[in-house]
Write a structure and sequence with these properties.
With about 280 residues, the chain is of the alpha+beta class. The protein has 4 domains: about 15-60, no CATH class; about 70-185, Tetrahydropterin Synthase, Chain A, CATH 3.30.479; about 190-240; about 240-285, no CATH class. The protein has 7 helices and 12 strands. It has helices at about 1-25, 100-105, 125-140, 150-170, 190-240, 240-260, 280-285; strands at about 25, 30-35, 40, 50, 60-65, 70-75, 85-95, 115, 120, 175-185, 260-265, 270-275. The strands form 5 sheets. A 3-stranded antiparallel beta sheet has the order 3-2-5. It has a 3-stranded antiparallel beta sheet with strand order 6-7-10. It is rod-shaped, with a radius of gyration of 48 Å. The N and C termini lie far apart (about 180 Å).
Length: about 280
């Protein structure tokens, strides 16, 4: 009897330990617990720490309460010119308000997904589906030849459209923290057009530079001509009849002192009307 008593006592202790262990659980940092009692979801979410629950009839689900990300791969949306992309990969980061995870789970039952650590991603399927639509919508507003130069603009447009879609049905519950364009590949024929467009753009920039240089050179010549014209104007204004007479007299005096053989006879002191050789004059005499 003592042996049976010990056996039953041991069994009882095991059941008590199992009962205790099934009543206690821990929620780690960045996670949220949502309890279900007899299948009914409790709306009061539980944060990090140690919590007690009713064994057997109450179950707990652990959700990720921090930033979640997923990648949409091999999308082939059409651009504004109706040309389809060869490949578009987009990574979306989102968060669900921790105090609304239980409500979201009830409203969007079946859209959660299990993460690598075993915790659930709330409303994962919903955000994933809406993100796909937002990506297609955003690409449709940009020309295919402009998409390569508009990656940041495209990422912002996807984030804004996705946030707007989620806010229409659940304002303040979801937050799209960021969107990253991982890959953006257009059709090969479009790629050739893009390369040609880039080459032509570079040529145009070079031509514009040549025009600017030519324009600057022309401006320099204009300024130089203006300077010469201004100098000539100043000189012409300074060439008065009196000044010219003085210069002619000085030249005649210099000629006389040098013993030259050519005599210059000015007429009325206004110019040089006659040039005679002094030797020929002496022979005639």
């Amino acid at each position: 009897m003592k042996v049976l008593g010990r056996i039953f006592g041991g069994i009882a202790l095991v059941f008590v330990a199992m009962f205790f262990l099934s009543s206690v659980y821990t929620v780690e940092t960045g996670h949220i617990a949502v309890e279900r009692t007899l299948g009914k979801v409790k709306l009061n979410e539980l944060g990090e720490g140690i919590h007690l629950k009713l064994p057997i009839i109450t179950h707990k689900d652990i959700y990720v309460g921090k930033e979640i990300n997923f990648t949409l791969e091999d999308l082939k949306p059409k651009a504004a010119d109706n040309l389809s992309l060869k490949d578009l990969d987009v990574t979306v980061y989102y968060k669900v308000m921790p105090t609304a995870i239980a409500e979201t789970e009830i409203k969007y039952a079946g859209t959660r997904a299990r993460g690598s650590d075993g915790a659930w991603y709330p409303a994962y399927g919903l955000v994933h589906q809406e993100a796909r639509g937002a990506a297609y919508d955003a690409v449709s507003k940009i020309e295919s030849l402009e998409l390569h130069k508009s990656r940041d603009q495209l990422a912002i447009a996807i984030a804004e459209r996705l946030q707007a879609k989620l806010d229409r049905s659940d304002p303040g519950i979801f937050t799209i923290t960021r969107v990253i364009i991982r890959a953006l590949n257009t059709d090969p024929s479009i790629e050739q057009s893009i390369q040609l467009a880039v080459q032509n753009e570079k040529k145009l920039e070079a031509k514009k530079l040549e025009v600017d240089i030519a324009r600057q050179d022309a401006q320099i010549e204009i300024e130089r001509s203006k300077g010469v014209a201004e100098a000539n104007r100043i000189i012409n204004e300074s060439l008065t009849p009196e000044y010219l007479q003085h210069e002619i007299n000085t030249a005649l005096l210099s000629f006389a002192d040098s013993g030259g053989s050519v005599v210059v006879i000015p007429a009325n002191m206004q110019g040089f009307d006659m040039i005679l050789d002094a030797k020929s004059l002496n022979q005639k005499k």
